[in-house]
Amino acid sequence: MRFTRLVAWRFMLKGTPAGTFSPMTLFAWLAIAVGVAAMGCLLSVMYGFESALRERVLKAYPHVMIRPKVANQPLRDYAPWTEKFKTLPGIMRVMPYAETEMILQSDFRTLGGVVWGLPPEELERIQEGISEGGLPDPKARLPQVVLGSELGHRLGLSPGRRLKLISPIETGGALGMVPKSQTFEVAGLYASGHYEFDQQYLFLPLLDAQEVLRWGDAISGWHLWAESLDDSESLLKEVTKILPDTLEAQSWRSFNSALFQSLQLEQYAMFSILSLAIVIAVMNIVITLMMHVTHKRANIGILRALGASKRQIRDAFLWQGAFLGGVGLGLGALFTAGFMVYVRYFSTYQLPEIYYDRTIPIEIRPLSMVLIYSVAIVLIYLATLYPARRAAGLHPIDAIRE
């Protein structure tokens, strides 16, 4: 084994007929390094964007949402259910809420939006996401609301301006059937980082929402949070077991299922495409080894004449392919680490303003890295089989004569 490794290492470093270092060896190293580094860096960036998007979604939506199967049906006497949800395993927080679609009218524009009525303690949780203004003040002259930042900009509103909420449900009055409306003051603008959410949602205290809807002490459903994101699916299963037929539960994945599925499909596609780049890089190893077999015919003949077996010659070229691939994979790991360190700590590149994340996010998933290098190792091994068999099949007399 030591003899074959020594021969393989010398053949790799002295790969020309003159016994000097072959540029083809360097190209084989770089091809493998660039292939695995490109796949590792690209997938890490894609995973980073996926995690950033997931974080934005979870700032806007709960882990599990429970609501009636029939839309806009208020739930009364909900306190017992709230207490029952709090006893579920893995539950961290339970929040009753009121939700409805209303017409939002400012001095500049009229749009449709979704109103969320939240308990006072839950309104305080969105404090960190307030980009302008603050939370609703119970002592204010007019009832106050918090608008999604994109919705506020579309309506031309800022903190202190007035907004009219118009219910599309007609109510009776002196003039006949007219929609109910109420004027609110904008207390602040909320930026969750999720564009679709910020352009259609607004928050107000639960009591004010119930008054606008004339629901009394009724809600639209519950928001539930698990102790960790990984426990959300198990929490969904536990909730589903105890829900009556009139209620349904959805996890955070269902709110943006099409988006996350498209991201996963893109990741699989990029992995498949970049695997072809590794295949092309591995072909350089085949070409390099075949050239070494040609250049070292006389050396192989002498080794065979001195007593080296076919198996030793074959193993020597298998080890040479392993050395070529090992150096290339090592360089690829260094390139990948250098790229990630540069992006994380030294890069000053800023993404355009249309992105919520102005910097390039990075997330390293060990399983993906193991898969990348495992695929590369298997391909490198397969690439060395034919040149090794070709070298082992050389006749010593013919090789020495040439």
Description:
The chain is of the alpha+beta class. The chain folds into two domains: 2-57 and 259-401, no CATH class; 70-244, no CATH class. Helix content is 53%, strand content 21%. It has 14 helices and twelve strands. The chain has a six-stranded mixed beta barrel with strand order 3-4-9-6-8-7. The two termini are 28 Å apart.
Largest beta-sheet details: 6 strands, mixed, barrel
**What is the number of beta strands?**
12
Binned strand content: 15-25%
Shape: elongated
What is the number of helical segments per DSSP (H or I, 4+ residues)? 14
Poorly predicted runs: none
Overall residue-averaged pLDDT value: 84
Secondary-structure element order, as H and E? Answer: HHEEHEEHEEHEEHEHEEHEHHHHHH
Helix content: 40-55%
Oligomer state of the chains in this structure: single chain
Quickly count the domains. Answer: 2
Calculate Rg over CA atoms.
Answer: 33 Å
Strand order in space, largest sheet: 3-4-9-6-8-7
Distance separating the two termini = 28 Å
Structural class: alpha+beta
Short key terms for the protein model shown above:
elongated; two-stranded antiparallel sheet; alpha+beta; 402 residues
Brief overview:
This protein has 14 helices and twelve strands. The protein has 402 residues and is of the alpha+beta class.
Architecture blueprint of SSEs:
Layout: H1 2-13, H2 23-60, E1 64-68, E2 75-76, H3 79-86, E3 91-105, E4 110-118, H4 120-123, E5 130-133, E6 144-148, H5 149-155, E7 162-173, E8 176-190, H6 195-198, E9 201-205, H7 206-213, E10 218-219, E11 221-226, H8 232-242, E12 247-251, H9 252-255, H10 257-295, H11 297-305, H12 310-346, H13 366-392, H14 396-401
Parallel strand pairs: 4-9, 6-8
Antiparallel strand pairs: 1-11, 1-12, 2-10, 3-4, 3-7, 3-11, 5-8, 6-9, 7-8
Helix pairs in contact: 1-12, 2-10, 2-12, 2-13, 10-12, 10-13, 12-13
